[in-house]
């Protein structure tokens, strides 16, 4: 999602905008109606989330083992 916001409002609401960017939102900062900058997530920002997701999945699987299922077959079924 991309939202336009005036420069003054961006200045006064920067912490709120940064939380929005962290949640995946994008903002275009304008000055007198002209777009001057885009506030978007940093390129490496998603890497930490992916690593945390993998760790969470590993914790889940260690507590809830999948028995009697062939993971490769399940993946192939999902692709058809």
Average pLDDT over all residues: 85
SS-based class: alpha+beta
Number of strands: 3
Q: In percent, how helical is the residue content? A: 40-55%
Radius of gyration: 20 Å
Strand content: 15-25%
- Point out poorly predicted stretches: none
What's the CATH first level? Alpha Beta
Q: Identify the strand order in the major beta sheet.
A: 1-2-3
Write the layout of secondary structure elements.
Layout: E1 2-6, H1 7-12, H2 14-22, E2 26-31, E3 34-39, H3 45-63, H4 71-79
Parallel strand pairs: 1-2
Antiparallel strand pairs: 2-3
Describe the structure concisely for a colleague.
This protein is α+β, with helices and mostly antiparallel strands and 80 residues long. The protein has helices spanning 7-12, 14-22, 45-63, 71-79; strands at 2-6, 26-31, 34-39.
Report on the structure:
With 80 residues, the chain is α+β, with helices and mostly antiparallel strands. The chain has a single domain (1-67), classed as 3-Layer(aba) Sandwich (YefM-like fold). The protein contains 4 helices and 3 strands, in the order βααββαα. A hairpin with a 2-residue loop joins β2 and β3. The longest helix has 19 residues, at 45-63. The radius of gyration is 20 Å and the shape is elongated. The two termini are 31 Å apart.
């Amino acid at each position: 999602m991309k939202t336009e916001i005036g420069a003054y409002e961006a200045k006064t609401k920067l912490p709120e905008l940064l939380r929005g960017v962290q949640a995946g939102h994008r903002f275009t900062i304008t000055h007198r109606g002209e777009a001057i900058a885009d506030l978007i997530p940093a390129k490496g920002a998603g890497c930490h989330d992916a690593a945390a997701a993998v760790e969470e999945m590993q914790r889940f699987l260690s507590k809830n083992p999948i028995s009697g299922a062939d993971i490769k077959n399940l993946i192939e079924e999902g692709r058809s």
